[in-house]
Design brief:
The protein is of the alpha+beta class. The protein has one domain. About 40% of the residues lie in helices and about 25% in strands. The chain is built from four helices and four strands. The protein has a four-stranded mixed sheet with strand order 1-4-2-3, with helices on one face. Strand 2 (about 50-55), helix 3 (about 60-70) and strand 3 (about 70-75) form a beta-alpha-beta unit. Helix 2 runs parallel beside helix 3 (about 60-70).
Length: about 120
């Protein structure tokens, strides 16, 4: 299998209005759940995807599409000591200009396995 990463918009193009990190990250999750399926569907149709690995918080976005296309879906929750530490470090990473990652503006990174044919 070949691992690939793709991004889709989070539907917050206005820098001034973008909810960013922290307590408003839920706005990004809601927008993706409501409007992201057509973009994800386009990726699924154009690529030969055999498996999607996603954070469980995006379940509403991917579960129906995985079933529709017969794609194996692996969901996980990012609740662990490592994840908690990463969450706690985000404000410092922003302060040090390490986040957001330059060149990738307000996108969700999707990871999946692609079968070689």
């Amino acid at each position: 299998p070949k691992l690939q990463f793709k991004t889709i918009s989070d539907f917050h193009d206005d820098e001034e209005e973008h909810p960013g990190f922290g307590e408003k990250i839920g706005d990004v999750v809601v927008a993706l759940s409501l409007y992201g399926k057509p973009l994800l569907r386009d990726i699924i149709v154009s690529e030969k995807i055999s498996c999607m690995i996603v954070d469980g918080i995006f379940g509403d976005l991917v579960i129906d599409l995985a079933h529709e296309f017969g794609i194996q879906l692996i969901t996980f929750r990012t609740v662990s000591a490592c994840c908690l530490w990463a969450y706690l470090c985000v404000p410092k990473l922003i302060q040090c200009n390490e986040l957001p990652i330059r060149g990738v503006r307000h996108t969700l990174v999707l990871v999946w396995c692609q079968t070689l044919t």
